[in-house]
Specification:
Length: 224
């Protein structure tokens, strides 16, 4: 997803991902992003102030669910011509997700649920075409999920196939591929009574992982 600024007059400027990261880091207080449901609006304001003499702006949702910041005003580089123009800024996340600059992913603006694991997966999959239950792929992502969870246990998009006899055969719920990163608590996984085939990040263990029965109701987060 790129950061796109397009004017109605036909001029356009396509910023690559790194340019967007630099913009966020240079103009926003990073801590305000975790979490910040007003992030799209705030970026909209900053873009307005940085690139044009802002007369007005509006934040809308496009057909893909991503934020569209429509900015109206006079181009400061051609202010002597007093030419009004309209710019549209496409945000990196849908409006019900926040951008995390550390791992460069979109996460739910708030912790969801509680719900059983299968319903958490279903909810995330139906929030946005590319959304899924969080799947930490490295230590940094696991740490960010823990911070966003705010002291609550959360489901992860990880499961063990019911036919597997290997306790460590853990797969991603989004694509059924073997997990490339794990963070098990020292006694885990243990599959008590043969009924623990999904994964939970445990707040009391600094978000180390436990296998659990998916019928428990637990909080969860979605990601894109």
């Amino acid at each position: 997803m790129c950061f796109l600024v397009r004017s109605k007059s036909g001029n356009s400027n396509l910023c690559h991902r790194q340019q967007f990261y630099e913009f966020v880091n240079n103009t926003l207080n990073i801590e305000s992003l975790i979490p910040s449901s007003n992030l799209p609006s705030y970026i909209c304001q900053r873009m307005c102030r940085q690139y044009i003499e802002c007369l007005a702006f509006s934040l809308q949702r496009n057909e893909r669910g991503f934020g569209m910041c429509n900015i109206y005003g006079t181009d400061i580089h051609q202010s002597d011509l007093i030419i009004n123009d309209e710019f549209t800024v496409y945000m990196p996340c849908p409006l019900n997700f926040d951008w995390d600059v550390y791992v460069k992913k979109c996460y739910s603006v708030q912790v969801l649920g509680p719900n059983i694991w299968s319903k958490a997966v279903y909810y995330c999959n139906n929030t946005h075409p590319r959304a899924k239950l969080v799947e930490p792929r490295n230590a940094m992502e696991n740490e960010r999920i823990g911070l966003l969870a705010g002291g609550m246990d959360v489901w992860l998009g990880l499961y063990r196939p019911s036919s597997s006899i290997d306790l460590n055969e853990i797969r991603y719920s989004s694509d059924d591929q073997l997990a490339t990163y794990t963070r098990w608590e020292g006694t885990q996984p243990n599959n008590v009574n043969g009924e623990e085939n999904v994964v939970l990040a445990n707040a009391d263990s600094n978000y180390e992982w436990f296998d659990r029965n998916g019928d428990q109701e637990v909080r969860f987060l979605c990601e894109i």
